[in-house]
Automatic annotation (TrEMBL):
<dbReference type="Pfam" id="PF14403">
    <property type="entry name" value="CP_ATPgrasp_2"/>
</dbReference>
<dbReference type="InterPro" id="IPR025841">
    <property type="entry name" value="CP_ATPgrasp_2"/>
</dbReference>
<dbReference type="InterPro" id="IPR016450">
    <property type="entry name" value="UCP005522"/>
</dbReference>
<protein>
    <submittedName>
        <fullName>Putative circularly permuted ATP-grasp superfamily protein</fullName>
    </submittedName>
</protein>
<dbReference type="InterPro" id="IPR051680">
    <property type="entry name" value="ATP-dep_Glu-Cys_Ligase-2"/>
</dbReference>
<feature type="domain" description="Circularly permuted ATP-grasp type 2">
    <location>
        <begin position="94"/>
        <end position="472"/>
    </location>
</feature>
Protein backbone atom coordinates (compact mmCIF):
# COMPACT_ATOMS: atom_id res chain seq x y z
CA UNK A 1 0.00 0.00 0.00
CA UNK A 2 1.10 3.55 -0.64
CA UNK A 3 1.82 5.78 2.32
CA UNK A 4 -0.62 8.72 2.30
CA UNK A 5 0.35 10.98 5.21
CA UNK A 6 3.05 13.51 5.98
CA UNK A 7 4.84 16.27 4.16
CA UNK A 8 7.10 16.09 1.15
CA UNK A 9 10.51 16.71 2.69
CA UNK A 10 13.10 18.89 1.00
CA UNK A 11 15.51 15.92 1.03
CA UNK A 12 13.42 14.04 -1.54
CA UNK A 13 15.41 14.35 -4.78
CA UNK A 14 12.57 15.07 -7.21
CA UNK A 15 11.07 17.80 -5.00
CA UNK A 16 14.27 19.43 -3.69
CA UNK A 17 13.84 23.21 -3.87
CA UNK A 18 10.19 23.00 -4.93
CA UNK A 19 8.83 25.20 -2.16
CA UNK A 20 11.52 27.82 -2.69
CA UNK A 21 10.36 28.11 -6.31
CA UNK A 22 6.74 28.11 -5.18
CA UNK A 23 7.24 31.16 -2.99
CA UNK A 24 8.46 33.03 -6.05
CA UNK A 25 5.29 32.23 -7.98
CA UNK A 26 2.86 33.54 -5.32
CA UNK A 27 0.11 31.41 -6.86
CA UNK A 28 -2.46 28.84 -5.75
CA UNK A 29 -0.68 25.50 -5.86
CA UNK A 30 -2.95 22.63 -6.84
CA UNK A 31 -1.00 19.96 -4.94
CA UNK A 32 0.56 21.41 -1.78
CA UNK A 33 -0.71 23.65 0.99
CA UNK A 34 1.46 26.37 2.53
CA UNK A 35 3.06 24.00 5.05
CA UNK A 36 4.33 21.71 2.30
CA UNK A 37 1.80 18.97 2.97
CA UNK A 38 0.00 17.43 -0.01
CA UNK A 39 -3.72 18.17 -0.13
CA UNK A 40 -5.88 15.18 0.79
CA UNK A 41 -6.79 14.15 -2.78
CA UNK A 42 -3.11 14.36 -3.84
CA UNK A 43 -1.49 12.48 -0.95
CA UNK A 44 -1.12 9.10 -2.63
CA UNK A 45 0.31 10.35 -5.89
CA UNK A 46 2.57 12.99 -4.28
CA UNK A 47 4.09 10.45 -1.89
CA UNK A 48 4.50 7.98 -4.75
CA UNK A 49 6.72 10.41 -6.67
CA UNK A 50 8.54 11.57 -3.53
CA UNK A 51 9.90 8.04 -3.00
CA UNK A 52 11.23 7.81 -6.52
CA UNK A 53 14.85 8.41 -7.45
CA UNK A 54 15.73 10.63 -10.38
CA UNK A 55 16.92 7.63 -12.44
CA UNK A 56 13.67 5.73 -11.77
CA UNK A 57 11.62 8.70 -12.88
CA UNK A 58 13.72 9.29 -16.00
CA UNK A 59 13.19 5.66 -17.01
CA UNK A 60 9.42 6.10 -16.71
CA UNK A 61 9.64 9.40 -18.56
CA UNK A 62 11.47 7.76 -21.45
CA UNK A 63 8.84 5.01 -21.64
CA UNK A 64 6.26 7.76 -21.93
CA UNK A 65 8.06 9.45 -24.81
CA UNK A 66 8.41 6.14 -26.63
CA UNK A 67 4.69 5.46 -26.15
CA UNK A 68 3.80 8.87 -27.60
CA UNK A 69 6.20 8.37 -30.51
CA UNK A 70 4.65 5.01 -31.44
CA UNK A 71 1.15 6.50 -31.18
CA UNK A 72 2.17 9.38 -33.41
CA UNK A 73 1.00 11.93 -30.84
CA UNK A 74 2.43 15.11 -32.34
CA UNK A 75 1.79 18.83 -32.60
CA UNK A 76 3.38 21.70 -34.50
CA UNK A 77 5.46 24.53 -33.04
CA UNK A 78 5.53 27.51 -35.38
CA UNK A 79 8.64 29.64 -35.73
CA UNK A 80 8.83 32.72 -37.92
CA UNK A 81 9.85 30.71 -40.96
CA UNK A 82 8.49 27.19 -40.54
CA UNK A 83 6.41 24.74 -38.58
CA UNK A 84 8.23 22.00 -36.67
CA UNK A 85 6.40 18.79 -35.79
CA UNK A 86 7.25 17.38 -32.37
CA UNK A 87 6.11 14.73 -29.91
CA UNK A 88 3.58 16.27 -27.57
CA UNK A 89 5.24 17.06 -24.17
CA UNK A 90 3.50 15.11 -21.41
CA UNK A 91 4.12 15.34 -17.67
CA UNK A 92 3.59 12.24 -15.54
CA UNK A 93 2.31 14.04 -12.42
CA UNK A 94 -1.48 14.14 -13.02
CA UNK A 95 -3.76 17.05 -12.24
CA UNK A 96 -6.61 15.94 -9.92
CA UNK A 97 -10.00 17.64 -9.63
CA UNK A 98 -12.32 16.61 -6.82
CA UNK A 99 -15.90 15.57 -7.54
CA UNK A 100 -17.20 18.64 -5.71
CA UNK A 101 -15.05 20.98 -7.79
CA UNK A 102 -16.02 19.23 -11.01
CA UNK A 103 -19.75 19.43 -10.31
CA UNK A 104 -19.49 23.23 -10.23
CA UNK A 105 -17.37 23.32 -13.38
CA UNK A 106 -19.80 21.04 -15.23
CA UNK A 107 -22.85 23.09 -14.25
CA UNK A 108 -21.06 26.22 -15.40
CA UNK A 109 -20.08 24.68 -18.75
CA UNK A 110 -23.61 23.50 -19.58
CA UNK A 111 -25.07 26.85 -18.54
CA UNK A 112 -22.54 28.78 -20.61
CA UNK A 113 -22.91 26.76 -23.81
CA UNK A 114 -26.71 26.83 -23.54
CA UNK A 115 -26.63 30.64 -23.36
CA UNK A 116 -24.09 30.95 -26.18
CA UNK A 117 -26.19 28.74 -28.43
CA UNK A 118 -29.26 30.90 -27.74
CA UNK A 119 -27.17 34.01 -28.44
CA UNK A 120 -26.07 32.68 -31.83
CA UNK A 121 -29.63 31.83 -32.82
CA UNK A 122 -30.77 35.28 -31.72
CA UNK A 123 -28.15 37.34 -33.57
CA UNK A 124 -28.83 35.48 -36.82
CA UNK A 125 -32.61 35.84 -36.42
CA UNK A 126 -34.52 38.37 -34.28
CA UNK A 127 -31.50 40.14 -32.69
CA UNK A 128 -33.46 40.75 -29.49
CA UNK A 129 -30.36 41.02 -27.30
CA UNK A 130 -29.07 43.77 -29.59
CA UNK A 131 -32.38 45.61 -29.77
CA UNK A 132 -32.59 45.55 -25.98
CA UNK A 133 -29.08 47.10 -25.88
CA UNK A 134 -27.62 44.35 -23.73
CA UNK A 135 -24.76 44.05 -26.22
CA UNK A 136 -23.75 46.83 -28.66
CA UNK A 137 -24.95 46.28 -32.24
CA UNK A 138 -21.61 47.21 -33.80
CA UNK A 139 -19.62 44.90 -31.55
CA UNK A 140 -21.51 41.90 -32.93
CA UNK A 141 -22.17 42.89 -36.52
CA UNK A 142 -18.59 44.09 -37.08
CA UNK A 143 -17.01 40.93 -35.68
CA UNK A 144 -14.82 39.30 -38.34
CA UNK A 145 -16.62 36.03 -37.64
CA UNK A 146 -20.19 37.30 -38.05
CA UNK A 147 -21.32 35.31 -41.09
CA UNK A 148 -24.08 36.96 -43.11
CA UNK A 149 -24.71 33.66 -44.90
CA UNK A 150 -26.23 32.41 -41.63
CA UNK A 151 -28.87 35.13 -41.31
CA UNK A 152 -32.34 33.51 -41.00
CA UNK A 153 -30.83 30.07 -41.59
CA UNK A 154 -32.08 27.41 -39.16
CA UNK A 155 -29.37 24.80 -38.52
CA UNK A 156 -30.53 21.19 -38.07
CA UNK A 157 -31.63 20.64 -34.49
CA UNK A 158 -31.27 24.38 -33.86
CA UNK A 159 -27.68 23.83 -32.69
CA UNK A 160 -24.67 26.01 -33.51
CA UNK A 161 -22.13 25.10 -30.82
CA UNK A 162 -21.87 21.34 -31.23
CA UNK A 163 -18.27 21.00 -30.00
CA UNK A 164 -16.85 23.57 -27.61
CA UNK A 165 -13.55 23.97 -25.79
CA UNK A 166 -13.86 26.26 -22.77
CA UNK A 167 -10.59 27.32 -21.13
CA UNK A 168 -10.70 27.57 -17.33
CA UNK A 169 -8.10 28.84 -14.88
CA UNK A 170 -7.84 28.85 -11.11
CA UNK A 171 -6.69 32.23 -9.77
CA UNK A 172 -4.68 32.81 -6.59
CA UNK A 173 -7.99 33.31 -4.74
CA UNK A 174 -8.70 29.60 -5.32
CA UNK A 175 -11.72 30.28 -7.57
CA UNK A 176 -12.25 29.01 -11.12
CA UNK A 177 -12.65 31.54 -13.95
CA UNK A 178 -13.47 31.13 -17.63
CA UNK A 179 -10.56 32.56 -19.59
CA UNK A 180 -11.75 31.91 -23.13
CA UNK A 181 -14.49 30.29 -25.23
CA UNK A 182 -13.38 28.25 -28.26
CA UNK A 183 -16.35 27.50 -30.49
CA UNK A 184 -15.07 27.27 -34.06
CA UNK A 185 -13.05 24.05 -34.14
CA UNK A 186 -11.43 23.61 -30.72
CA UNK A 187 -8.58 21.11 -30.64
CA UNK A 188 -6.89 19.07 -27.96
CA UNK A 189 -9.34 16.32 -27.06
CA UNK A 190 -7.23 13.64 -28.78
CA UNK A 191 -4.41 14.49 -26.37
CA UNK A 192 -6.80 13.96 -23.45
CA UNK A 193 -7.42 10.40 -24.59
CA UNK A 194 -3.79 9.73 -25.50
CA UNK A 195 -2.62 11.06 -22.13
CA UNK A 196 -4.99 8.75 -20.29
CA UNK A 197 -4.02 5.70 -22.35
CA UNK A 198 -0.33 6.38 -21.73
CA UNK A 199 -0.85 7.00 -18.02
CA UNK A 200 -2.53 3.62 -17.60
CA UNK A 201 0.36 1.88 -19.34
CA UNK A 202 3.23 3.69 -17.62
CA UNK A 203 1.85 4.12 -14.09
CA UNK A 204 -0.87 1.49 -13.62
CA UNK A 205 -0.20 1.09 -9.88
CA UNK A 206 -0.81 4.72 -8.97
CA UNK A 207 -3.66 5.13 -11.44
CA UNK A 208 -5.68 2.30 -9.96
CA UNK A 209 -5.31 3.65 -6.42
CA UNK A 210 -7.78 6.37 -7.47
CA UNK A 211 -11.34 6.15 -8.73
CA UNK A 212 -10.98 8.27 -11.84
CA UNK A 213 -13.80 9.17 -14.23
CA UNK A 214 -13.34 7.61 -17.64
CA UNK A 215 -12.75 9.66 -20.79
CA UNK A 216 -12.55 6.76 -23.24
CA UNK A 217 -16.15 7.07 -24.46
CA UNK A 218 -15.63 10.53 -25.99
CA UNK A 219 -15.40 9.31 -29.64
CA UNK A 220 -18.62 7.32 -29.24
CA UNK A 221 -20.33 10.30 -27.62
CA UNK A 222 -19.09 12.56 -30.41
CA UNK A 223 -20.53 10.22 -33.02
CA UNK A 224 -23.85 10.03 -31.15
CA UNK A 225 -23.97 13.84 -31.05
CA UNK A 226 -23.26 14.08 -34.79
CA UNK A 227 -26.07 11.65 -35.53
CA UNK A 228 -28.44 13.60 -33.26
CA UNK A 229 -28.23 16.66 -35.54
CA UNK A 230 -28.57 14.86 -38.88
CA UNK A 231 -31.01 16.40 -41.38
CA UNK A 232 -34.65 15.50 -40.89
CA UNK A 233 -35.72 12.21 -42.41
CA UNK A 234 -32.25 10.63 -42.29
CA UNK A 235 -32.38 7.51 -40.12
CA UNK A 236 -28.83 6.21 -40.62
CA UNK A 237 -26.69 9.29 -41.27
CA UNK A 238 -23.30 9.10 -42.91
CA UNK A 239 -20.85 11.23 -40.92
CA UNK A 240 -17.37 12.36 -41.95
CA UNK A 241 -14.51 14.44 -40.55
CA UNK A 242 -13.38 17.19 -42.95
CA UNK A 243 -9.68 18.05 -42.58
CA UNK A 244 -7.57 20.70 -44.33
CA UNK A 245 -4.95 17.98 -44.82
CA UNK A 246 -1.69 16.64 -43.49
CA UNK A 247 -0.03 20.05 -43.10
CA UNK A 248 -2.56 21.27 -40.55
CA UNK A 249 -1.15 21.43 -37.00
CA UNK A 250 -4.10 19.41 -35.64
CA UNK A 251 -4.01 16.69 -38.32
CA UNK A 252 -3.13 14.04 -35.75
CA UNK A 253 -6.38 14.84 -33.95
CA UNK A 254 -8.44 14.71 -37.15
CA UNK A 255 -7.17 11.22 -37.95
CA UNK A 256 -7.52 10.10 -34.33
CA UNK A 257 -11.18 11.12 -34.06
CA UNK A 258 -12.19 9.75 -37.46
CA UNK A 259 -10.50 6.42 -36.72
CA UNK A 260 -12.02 6.08 -33.25
CA UNK A 261 -15.51 7.01 -34.44
CA UNK A 262 -15.23 4.62 -37.37
CA UNK A 263 -16.01 7.30 -39.97
CA UNK A 264 -14.19 8.55 -43.04
CA UNK A 265 -11.55 11.29 -42.86
CA UNK A 266 -11.98 13.41 -45.98
CA UNK A 267 -10.51 16.48 -47.63
CA UNK A 268 -12.50 18.92 -49.71
CA UNK A 269 -11.38 17.25 -52.94
CA UNK A 270 -12.95 13.97 -51.74
CA UNK A 271 -16.49 15.42 -51.87
CA UNK A 272 -18.75 17.20 -54.35
CA UNK A 273 -22.23 18.71 -54.42
CA UNK A 274 -24.95 17.65 -56.83
CA UNK A 275 -28.50 19.01 -56.76
CA UNK A 276 -27.86 20.50 -53.28
CA UNK A 277 -26.75 17.19 -51.79
CA UNK A 278 -23.18 16.44 -50.67
CA UNK A 279 -21.52 13.25 -51.88
CA UNK A 280 -18.29 11.51 -50.99
CA UNK A 281 -16.22 9.82 -53.68
CA UNK A 282 -15.66 6.13 -52.97
CA UNK A 283 -14.40 3.16 -54.99
CA UNK A 284 -18.02 1.98 -55.10
CA UNK A 285 -19.33 5.27 -56.48
CA UNK A 286 -20.73 8.43 -54.84
CA UNK A 287 -22.07 8.12 -51.27
CA UNK A 288 -24.34 10.78 -49.80
CA UNK A 289 -22.94 12.59 -46.74
CA UNK A 290 -25.33 13.81 -44.06
CA UNK A 291 -23.15 15.27 -41.28
CA UNK A 292 -19.76 16.93 -41.69
CA UNK A 293 -17.59 17.52 -38.62
CA UNK A 294 -15.45 20.15 -40.24
CA UNK A 295 -12.00 21.25 -39.07
CA UNK A 296 -11.78 23.83 -41.86
CA UNK A 297 -12.34 27.54 -41.15
CA UNK A 298 -15.46 29.30 -42.45
CA UNK A 299 -13.60 31.33 -45.05
CA UNK A 300 -12.22 28.20 -46.75
CA UNK A 301 -15.41 26.11 -46.54
CA UNK A 302 -17.03 26.98 -49.88
CA UNK A 303 -15.13 28.76 -52.69
CA UNK A 304 -18.45 29.71 -54.32
CA UNK A 305 -19.42 31.77 -51.25
CA UNK A 306 -16.24 32.69 -49.37
CA UNK A 307 -12.65 32.70 -50.64
CA UNK A 308 -12.81 31.70 -54.32
CA UNK A 309 -9.18 30.55 -54.27
CA UNK A 310 -9.78 27.99 -51.50
CA UNK A 311 -8.91 24.40 -52.32
CA UNK A 312 -9.78 23.13 -48.83
CA UNK A 313 -13.56 23.29 -49.00
CA UNK A 314 -16.34 21.95 -51.17
CA UNK A 315 -17.95 24.12 -53.90
CA UNK A 316 -21.69 24.38 -53.24
CA UNK A 317 -21.61 23.05 -49.66
CA UNK A 318 -23.33 26.18 -48.30
CA UNK A 319 -26.20 25.77 -50.79
CA UNK A 320 -26.65 22.17 -49.58
CA UNK A 321 -26.55 23.44 -45.99
CA UNK A 322 -29.14 26.15 -46.65
CA UNK A 323 -31.35 23.53 -48.29
CA UNK A 324 -31.23 21.46 -45.09
CA UNK A 325 -29.60 18.49 -46.80
CA UNK A 326 -26.38 18.39 -44.76
CA UNK A 327 -25.34 19.40 -41.26
CA UNK A 328 -22.09 21.28 -40.71
CA UNK A 329 -20.51 20.91 -37.27
CA UNK A 330 -19.78 23.47 -35.83
CA UNK A 331 -22.18 25.74 -37.68
CA UNK A 332 -20.65 28.47 -39.86
CA UNK A 333 -20.71 31.81 -38.10
CA UNK A 334 -20.22 30.27 -34.67
CA UNK A 335 -16.90 32.10 -34.31
CA UNK A 336 -18.66 35.36 -33.49
CA UNK A 337 -19.42 33.88 -30.06
CA UNK A 338 -15.77 33.21 -29.26
CA UNK A 339 -14.68 36.68 -30.32
CA UNK A 340 -12.80 37.86 -27.23
CA UNK A 341 -14.77 41.11 -27.15
CA UNK A 342 -18.07 39.19 -27.20
CA UNK A 343 -16.69 36.98 -24.40
CA UNK A 344 -16.98 39.93 -22.02
CA UNK A 345 -20.78 39.82 -22.39
CA UNK A 346 -21.38 36.11 -21.72
CA UNK A 347 -22.51 36.77 -18.11
CA UNK A 348 -25.11 39.20 -19.47
CA UNK A 349 -26.20 36.55 -22.00
CA UNK A 350 -26.72 34.04 -19.21
CA UNK A 351 -28.88 36.49 -17.28
CA UNK A 352 -30.77 37.58 -20.41
CA UNK A 353 -31.60 34.18 -21.91
CA UNK A 354 -31.62 31.88 -18.87
CA UNK A 355 -32.63 34.27 -16.07
CA UNK A 356 -29.79 32.80 -13.97
CA UNK A 357 -26.60 34.04 -12.38
CA UNK A 358 -23.39 32.70 -13.95
CA UNK A 359 -21.98 29.63 -12.19
CA UNK A 360 -18.46 30.38 -13.45
CA UNK A 361 -17.13 33.93 -13.50
CA UNK A 362 -15.42 35.65 -16.40
CA UNK A 363 -12.05 37.29 -16.08
CA UNK A 364 -12.71 41.10 -15.97
CA UNK A 365 -12.32 42.37 -19.54
CA UNK A 366 -11.75 45.81 -21.05
CA UNK A 367 -12.93 46.32 -24.63
CA UNK A 368 -10.69 48.80 -26.42
CA UNK A 369 -13.52 49.81 -28.77
CA UNK A 370 -15.34 51.33 -25.77
CA UNK A 371 -13.95 54.78 -24.97
CA UNK A 372 -13.78 54.40 -21.18
CA UNK A 373 -12.12 50.99 -21.44
CA UNK A 374 -9.71 52.26 -24.10
CA UNK A 375 -8.53 55.11 -21.87
CA UNK A 376 -8.02 52.75 -18.94
CA UNK A 377 -5.98 50.35 -21.08
CA UNK A 378 -3.78 53.12 -22.43
CA UNK A 379 -3.03 54.33 -18.88
CA UNK A 380 -2.47 50.91 -17.29
CA UNK A 381 -0.99 48.65 -19.94
CA UNK A 382 1.88 47.50 -17.69
CA UNK A 383 -0.72 45.89 -15.38
CA UNK A 384 -2.71 44.16 -18.12
CA UNK A 385 -2.67 41.32 -20.65
CA UNK A 386 -3.58 42.61 -24.13
CA UNK A 387 -5.12 40.15 -26.61
CA UNK A 388 -6.28 40.31 -30.23
CA UNK A 389 -9.96 39.32 -30.36
CA UNK A 390 -9.62 36.95 -33.31
CA UNK A 391 -6.41 34.98 -32.75
CA UNK A 392 -5.77 31.73 -30.90
CA UNK A 393 -2.83 29.66 -29.75
CA UNK A 394 -1.48 32.42 -27.54
CA UNK A 395 -0.34 34.47 -30.54
CA UNK A 396 -0.34 38.26 -30.53
CA UNK A 397 -0.59 38.54 -26.72
CA UNK A 398 1.27 41.22 -24.77
CA UNK A 399 1.79 40.70 -21.03
CA UNK A 400 2.41 44.23 -19.83
CA UNK A 401 4.41 43.33 -16.73
CA UNK A 402 6.93 41.41 -18.87
CA UNK A 403 7.14 43.92 -21.74
CA UNK A 404 9.65 46.70 -22.31
CA UNK A 405 8.60 50.34 -22.60
CA UNK A 406 9.25 50.14 -26.34
CA UNK A 407 7.07 47.03 -26.73
CA UNK A 408 4.26 48.69 -24.79
CA UNK A 409 4.44 51.83 -26.93
CA UNK A 410 4.42 49.75 -30.12
CA UNK A 411 1.36 47.87 -28.91
CA UNK A 412 -0.42 51.10 -28.00
CA UNK A 413 -0.02 52.23 -31.60
CA UNK A 414 -1.47 48.92 -32.83
CA UNK A 415 -4.53 49.43 -30.63
CA UNK A 416 -4.99 53.04 -31.76
CA UNK A 417 -5.03 51.90 -35.41
CA UNK A 418 -7.71 49.23 -34.81
CA UNK A 419 -9.40 49.48 -31.43
CA UNK A 420 -12.03 46.83 -32.28
CA UNK A 421 -9.31 44.21 -32.62
CA UNK A 422 -8.11 44.30 -28.99
CA UNK A 423 -9.26 43.58 -25.46
CA UNK A 424 -7.36 43.71 -22.17
CA UNK A 425 -7.57 41.77 -18.92
CA UNK A 426 -5.84 41.99 -15.55
CA UNK A 427 -2.91 39.61 -15.21
CA UNK A 428 -4.48 36.53 -13.63
CA UNK A 429 -2.13 34.33 -11.62
CA UNK A 430 -2.80 30.87 -13.02
CA UNK A 431 -2.49 28.10 -10.45
CA UNK A 432 0.71 26.07 -10.33
CA UNK A 433 1.35 22.33 -10.38
CA UNK A 434 4.51 20.23 -9.90
CA UNK A 435 5.97 19.55 -13.34
CA UNK A 436 9.14 17.61 -14.14
CA UNK A 437 11.74 19.86 -15.77
CA UNK A 438 14.40 17.88 -17.59
CA UNK A 439 17.04 20.63 -17.39
CA UNK A 440 17.00 20.59 -13.57
CA UNK A 441 16.03 16.94 -13.16
CA UNK A 442 13.39 17.92 -10.56
CA UNK A 443 9.77 18.88 -10.14
CA UNK A 444 9.22 22.62 -10.28
CA UNK A 445 6.00 24.67 -10.09
CA UNK A 446 4.59 25.65 -13.48
CA UNK A 447 1.41 27.54 -14.38
CA UNK A 448 -1.50 25.48 -15.74
CA UNK A 449 -4.99 25.93 -17.16
CA UNK A 450 -7.72 23.49 -18.18
CA UNK A 451 -9.36 23.18 -21.59
CA UNK A 452 -12.71 21.50 -21.05
CA UNK A 453 -14.80 19.92 -23.80
CA UNK A 454 -18.57 19.80 -24.12
CA UNK A 455 -20.70 18.16 -26.82
CA UNK A 456 -24.08 19.78 -27.51
CA UNK A 457 -26.60 18.24 -29.89
CA UNK A 458 -30.33 17.83 -30.31
CA UNK A 459 -31.52 16.80 -26.82
CA UNK A 460 -27.88 15.90 -26.15
CA UNK A 461 -25.36 17.35 -23.67
CA UNK A 462 -22.11 15.63 -22.78
CA UNK A 463 -19.37 17.34 -20.73
CA UNK A 464 -16.15 15.31 -20.89
CA UNK A 465 -15.17 14.65 -17.26
CA UNK A 466 -11.77 16.28 -17.11
CA UNK A 467 -10.16 17.84 -20.13
CA UNK A 468 -6.70 18.91 -21.20
CA UNK A 469 -4.56 20.38 -18.44
CA UNK A 470 -2.04 22.53 -20.29
CA UNK A 471 1.30 23.50 -18.75
CA UNK A 472 3.48 26.54 -19.39
CA UNK A 473 6.83 24.73 -19.39
CA UNK A 474 8.90 27.92 -19.40
CA UNK A 475 9.57 29.21 -15.89
CA UNK A 476 7.23 32.07 -14.98
CA UNK A 477 5.37 31.92 -18.30
CA UNK A 478 1.58 32.21 -18.48
CA UNK A 479 1.40 30.92 -22.10
CA UNK A 480 0.30 27.28 -21.97
CA UNK A 481 -0.41 26.66 -25.66
CA UNK A 482 1.34 23.67 -27.22
CA UNK A 483 1.98 25.69 -30.39
CA UNK A 484 4.31 27.85 -28.32
CA UNK A 485 6.07 25.10 -26.42
CA UNK A 486 3.55 24.22 -23.70
CA UNK A 487 2.90 20.69 -22.48
CA UNK A 488 0.07 18.78 -20.84
CA UNK A 489 -0.97 16.52 -17.98
CA UNK A 490 -3.54 13.80 -17.56
CA UNK A 491 -6.57 15.28 -15.79
CA UNK A 492 -8.31 13.09 -13.22
CA UNK A 493 -11.84 13.88 -12.05
CA UNK A 494 -12.54 11.85 -8.92
CA UNK A 495 -15.63 9.68 -8.77
Amino acid sequence: MLKTKGTIKQSKPLFRGYFKHLRQYKAFDEVFNRTGKPKKHYQKVANFFSKMSKDEFLELNNHTKISFMYQGVTFTVYSEKEGIERIFPFDLFPRIITQREWEKIERGLVQRITALNLFLHDIYHDKKILKDRVIPYDLVLESPHYNKEMINLEPPGGVYTHVSGIDIIRHKDGEFYVLEDNLRSPSGVSYVLSNRSTMKKVLPNIFFHYEVSSVSDYPQQLLAMLKSVAPEGVDEPTCVVLTPGIYNSAYYEHTFLAHNMGVELVEGRDMFVDNNFVYMKTIYGPQKVDVIYRRVDDSFLDPLVFKPESLLGVPGIMAAYRAGNVTIVNAPGTGVADDKAIYAYVPQMIRYYLKEEPVLNNVPTYICDIEEDFNYVMDNMEKLVIKPVDESGGYGILIGAMATKEEIETYKNKIRRNRRKYIAQPIMTLSTHPTFIEESGKFEPRHIDLRTFLLYGKDFKYPLKGGLTRVALKKGSLIVNSSQGGGSKDTWVME
